[in-house]
Amino acid sequence: MSQFTKNFIGGRRVPSFGSEIIEIHSPYDGEFVGSAPLANKEDIDLAVREARQSFVNGPWARSSAAERLEVMKRFFDLYEARSEEFALFVSREMGAPLWFTRAVQVMIRDQSQAYFAAAETYPWIEERSGYPSGRAIWAREPIGVVAAIIPWNAPHQVALAKLYPALLAGCSVVLKLAPETAVDGQFLGEIFAEAGLPEGVLSILAADRDVSEYLVRHEGVDKIGFTGSTAAGRRIASIAGERLKRFSLELGGKSAAIVLPDADVSETVAALRYRSFPNNGQVCVAQTRVLIPAASYNEFVDAMVEDVSGMTIGNPLLPETFLGPIISERQRQRVLDYIRVGQNEGASIAIGGEGMPLGMNQGTFVRPTVFTNVSNSMRIAQEEIFGPVVCLIPYDGVDEAVRIANDSEYGLSGSVWTKDLDLAVKVARQVRTGGFAINGAAPDLMSPFGGVKQSGIGREFGTEGLNHYIEHKSISL
Q: Which among 40, 50, 7, 45 is positioned nearest to 173, based on CA atoms?
């Protein structure tokens, strides 16, 4: 079933206080995908009240870490059995190509196991020698009621990146879904209930910006975990600061891929296809600035144009489709506006630009666009576009490449491409970013993930991810 008429609050379906229903239609062909209530402030009040009651009086916060882990593992087994179903659903819901949503399901499997491993070895409580004398108990306790607010571009993966550590820590959670993907998250609630999560611990609601801010401000919320735009992150941080709420933010990016002179051009271009254009370019870690040695710039441009021209664009449910439609017409127009901005700034379009892809007469498509003659000071090189738009920027010398990579208000991800591993590590250490890959290496899901500068505050995954959902208590003996 994908038509939900009631909210998921406290582990059960309850009527919404409002009357508005969000209908989701495929951005590819307009086909009806599903529906869910749009929460209002009264719904938020009920969800937070249920969460607070469960945290103060319920069994979850007082259960052992092993007991909580057992429930989480039951959830994962139930979820994993429906992995292909969810990959297909998200492709229909938001236009992501099936190859991407299937890859996300693999990441969900891996991040689940990584969180479980971290929880099994986490020092929930330890006794230590006191200084200057005595003994002390160091307890890590759940932080309280968490508002987890997620975007639409990888909804299950981002939701679980917050739900796992929060629930493993013993918190109660109100998960706020983006209206654009209001339906897929509803399934998570059903599965958590089936896995045995106690009533009151989890609510899942879709809400607009005004109601989302009400949730952030709510006096019953102790911590906000947010993934989304930098602008929204700034707003959340300001509200949290006023009220001394804990918060962690995973925000935008404008990541640079540094191609060193010894890199194989064809191999690098083929690999960057999946790092510069994933999910139709709607990924915060996308490598949207590609820095190329001036001496091989033209060769690289030709190779990337050839690769992009071979991308299959169309129905996101077909396995051979590489690029599907943008999430919405509003987002499509935003991306097209940036393409016009780039032209007005003096950049050249090597391939792509305005207009629909060849053969497409429906859907919110944007042609994959590669800009050349780009200066890093241009808006298209400085601002997050969140679409299939990539800037190719020439450089002279490794030091200049590092300088250009660091010339950004963002610092979320990045990469270097070279046969010289020692030089690659040296470059990686010089680029100010929260994560970095050498030659496209997969991220380690036991290591902290997050950004520096305007790309966020805090980290997810592994022990560091759990840390954001606990408070420290010292007991002197």
A: 50
Token pair for residue 287? 């490598």
Please state the rounded mean pLDDT for residues 140-146. 98
Catalytic residue numbers read 250, 284
Predicted confidence (pLDDT) per residue in 99-122, tens digit:
999 999 999 999 999 999 999 999
Q: Are 255 and 261 in contact (CB under 8 A)?
A: no
Non-local CB neighbours of 208 within 8 Å, separated by 6+ positions: 38, 179
Q: Is the pLDDT of residue 428 over 80?
A: yes
The helix (H) or strand (E) run that includes residue 13 is strand 12-14
- DSSP letter, residue 455: G
The amino acid at 88: L
> What SS3 state is found at 128?
strand
Q: How far apart are CA 214 and CA 46, in angstroms?
A: 13
Tell me what the mean pLDDT of segment 210-220 comes to.
98
Four-residue CA torsion sign, 40, 41, 47, 51: positive
Give the number of other CB atoms < 10 A from CB of residue 230: 22
CA distance 49 to 17: 15
Nearest to 182 by CA among 299, 361, 34: 34
269-294 residues labelled b (16+ CB within 10 A) or e (exposed):
bebbbebbbbbbbbbbbbbbbbbbbe
Class of domain 256-444: alpha beta
Paired tokens of 450:
């997050």
pLDDT of amino acid 1: 62
H helix or E strand, kind and range, residue 438: strand 437-438
Q: Is the peptide bond before 368 cis (omega within 30 degrees of 0)?
A: no
Q: pTM, whole model, 2 decimals?
A: 0.96
Burial of residue 338 (number of CB atoms within 10 Å: 0-12, 13-18, 19+): buried
- The Cα-based distances of 388 to 236, 256, 320, 408, 410 in angstroms read 28, 15, 18, 19, 18
Predicted confidence band of residue 162 (pLDDT cuts 50, 70, 90)? very high
Hey, what are 458's tokens?
């805090």
CA–CA separation, 64 and 48 (whole Å):
23
Q: Where are the domains of the chain?
A: 7-251+454-476, 256-444
pLDDT digits (tens, 9 = 90+) for 172-208: 999 999 999 999 999 999 999 999 999 999 999 999 9
Give the whole-angstrom CA distance, residue 353 versus residue 340.
8
Cα atoms found within 13 Å of the Cα of residue 376, Cβ hemisphere only? 20
> Tokens 């393409």 belong to which residue?
339
8 Cβ contact list (under 8 Å, min separation 6) = 186, 189, 190, 202, 203, 204, 205
Mean residue pLDDT of the chain comes to: 97
From 3.40.605.10, 3.40.50.2300, 2.60.40.10, 1.10.10.10, which CATH number describes the 7-251+454-476 domain?
Answer: 3.40.605.10
